[in-house]
Amino acid sequence: MKLKELKIANITVPIPIIQGGMAVRISTAPLAAAVANEGGIGTIAGTGMGIDELKNEIRKARRMTNGVIGVNVLFAVKDFANLVKASIEERIDLVISGAGFSRDMFCWGKETNTPIIPIVSSAKLAVMAEKLGAAAVVVEGKEAGGHLGTDKPMKDILPDVCKAVKIPVIAAGGIIDGKDIIDAIKLGASGVQMGTRFVASEESNASDEMKKLYINSDESDVVLVKSPVGLPGQSLRNSFYDLVESENAPKISNCTQCLKRCSHSFCIMDALVNACKSGDPNKALIFSGEHVHRIKEILSVHDIFKKLLSEVAQF
Q1: Distance between CA 194 and CA 222 in Å, rounded?
Q2: pTM attached to this predicted model
Q3: How does the average pLDDT of the chain come out, rounded?
Q4: Domains of the chain by range and CATH?
Q5: Minimal CA–CA distance to 126: which of 162, 80, 95, 81?
Q6: What's the rounded Cα separation, in Å, for the pair 46 and 58?
Q7: Its domain of life (predicted)?
Q8: In the prediction, which pLDDT does 256 show?
Q9: What string of DSSP letters covers 187-210?
Q10: What is the phi/psi pair of residue 222, to 5°?
């Protein structure tokens, strides 16, 4: 089977793959640019970055590619509006957002003709997003890594969303190989978003320790953690997770009030930043998708695309 190009508003890419925006600082310019250079949509994770830092990452990515670059910012962060507006000022190609729902971001997008793509977990929310002006929606199921908005599998949600809206629908959660891509497209998706597969890439900013945990994991290692954001987070079990579950996580010594609402059970920004730093992975929250155990090697983005397209061609 040959994949069809992905069209979102005034943007067209030859390969219908969006790289997920993994925060904090896992998805930076090198990863996003590498994906864009392969014909997909590369995404910079703006969550946890300062305004100037995010602008610099966008500019860096622009120097590395002529392809399509997006920014992902979680609605839950306090600086959400400023980060999205800064991205638009830098003429980002599109904005993706999850962990909550902003009506205002559609107005900001309309003012500059910037496509806005919310992450949704139901047909009802997808319809609302379309009415507000969404250029597309990402349908994320329980298989995804990071913060989850549903306990339902993506394949149970996707068909209903595809029937309910006319805008492109992007499938996300649990997509690792070419067969997963084909399965999603057969259910009606216009394309897919892949996060976990790209964490285990050479261009990912994840630490070597985190990448090793990915390729050495098995199904039983994937757990749900109680995030201070107020949503469950899918991650890999490690000593840090055990501390959180036993309510013995490190106390917050210097709260920067990065979230709109926070339970203060632990500092999620510190825990996620530690995932991209070399050192002790047991001080880090290791977000990952449900099917991480199927990834057995760290590849370049080029080789990941080559492998995916080869697998797709078999169907």
Answers
A1: 17
A2: 0.91
A3: 90
A4: 6-205+295-312 (3.20.20.70), 208-293 (no CATH)
A5: 162
A6: 10
A7: Bacteria
A8: 67
A9: TT-SEEEE-HHHHTBTT--S-HHH
A10: -85, 125
